[in-house]
Automatic annotation (TrEMBL):
Pfam families registered for this protein in UniProt: NTF2 (PF02136), Pkinase (PF00069)
Family note: Belongs to the protein kinase superfamily. STE Ser/Thr protein kinase family. MAP kinase kinase subfamily.
Annotated EC: 2.7.12.2
Entry keyword annotation includes Nucleus: no
Organism: Astrephomene gubernaculifera
Protein name as catalogued: mitogen-activated protein kinase kinase
Amino acid sequence: MPPKLSLAISVEPEPAPYNSTNMASIRMSDDSLTVLTQSYNPVSFTTEGMQRKNDGLSYNISEKDIRILKKLGQGASSIVHKGFFIRENKFVAVKKINVFERETRHQMLNDLKALCDAPNAPGLVAFYGAYHVPESGQISIVLEYVDGGSLADVQAKVGKVPENVLSKMTAKILKALAYLHREKHMVHRDIKPANILMTLSGEPKITDFGISAFIDSTLAQCNTFLGTVTYMSPERINNQSYSFPADIWSLGLALVELATGRYPYDASEGPLQLMIHVLQEEAPLPPAGQFSEEFRDFVRQALAKEPHRRPLAEQLLGHPWILKYADDPVSLKSFMQCAFNPHDKLDEIAVVFAFNYYAHLNGGPARMRDLAPLYSKHSTLRYDGDCAVGRDAIMCRLGGVAAMHAGFRVAHEVVDVACQPLGFDGSALVNVTGQLVSPAAGNKPQPFTEIFVLSQVQAGEYYVANQCFRLIK
């Protein structure tokens, strides 16, 4: 006879900090937006950055520092874009959140608390800052851009992750979880393949702390029903108190899915029936004969129904399955080449080239020598009707442009960068749209377009073969 089912999902207002008396509220002025809550430090956002009021922690990053490039994805509470952090000359992920939605606001504060309290921690996505965009009513959170996508993306490309690769990935993920649990007393509550990002060099990064729970000590428990049901532990489904072992369950389930290529439970009948499967069925171990007994034992321990029987993250680091592949020659970097997209890389080269090119041009005649290596004796520049051929002639023409613009305090401002490959030799056509801007009163920005043909000398090394600048009248 199957065990008696006890499924008690709370639909009442959740305990603090989620009940109505502790709900975050907003105060707005002409230049700032402050989110207040009894559970967290008040956080103030302006167009110039973010500051936590009580401890003075601040991050100075603004909308003008970031150039939004393309949409990466969308969740229930946010839209994520790829961006370019101009000041730091690197790519970032920008999570845009509507702060006027109550639940979204809670998740944002949770996310920010976790990110601020764990700066530059190994295995966690890095946080650079946040700012308010008044016109859209959004808060933009600027995060590390992880170029390999999520483990869900990786699985979609490869079908199944080989066991030796998965073991090496898991060792790194466990170190990050151990840090969250032991050092930060944080239960992530939403560990799943979509929330574990991978760099192309093979480093996993845990992200999305919007529903994480912060507890006072390693002995404390949580009582709220939040998270993705498909990866939720039995004690959470039963609305019982839970703690760090809930994340271990979620990780174990995610590993089975990544190894076998499919989610191990039947979720086709809806969330209620899925919860019944999780509570009543035996743990879904990887098939015997197809996977090592060490891996099956690791999953068996991670998916123990009773949370007290699940090892801690740091204990699992010493499990035979992790140790078995510690010296395996497989390279996570080589494996992650499955996520490499040459067109994305070419787009990144074009963006970095464009922003650095105009930064040098805006620097005046003194910066011109830094542009000289971009040209050869065969390069051609057409500048609003004039033509210059060869490095010396081009540098003379650009020097004149830089001197004139410096005199009138005119600067090139990049609006958009588009790129497309030319043939199979690595050459690319880069189309920049922008505007000439000046602080002088009454001067309207003057739109321009500029096209560069970048020819590849060797992998990753380019010169400008042709260039054409035109003001848009």
